[in-house]
Write a structure and sequence with these properties.
mainly alpha
Length: 54
């Protein structure tokens, strides 16, 4: 599953779910389309699921 998300990330996700969904989707698309290595890409952006953390 990865690392445990930070409290601030969880609070923002709870307050702004649509925004965070869009941000995670953008990260997944950018990783899929461009040459972003694993060290640079945010965690959770490589699966089709809900994303672990940012």
């Amino acid at each position: 599953m990865g690392t445990i998300p930070a409290k601030q990330y969880l609070k923002i996700t709870e307050r702004f779910p649509d925004y965070m969904s869009a941000v995670e989707s953008l990260g997944k698309t950018a990783k899929k389309e461009g040459p972003i290595d694993e060290k640079t890409a945010p965690p959770g952006s490589n699966s089709g699921g809900g994303g672990d953390s940012l």
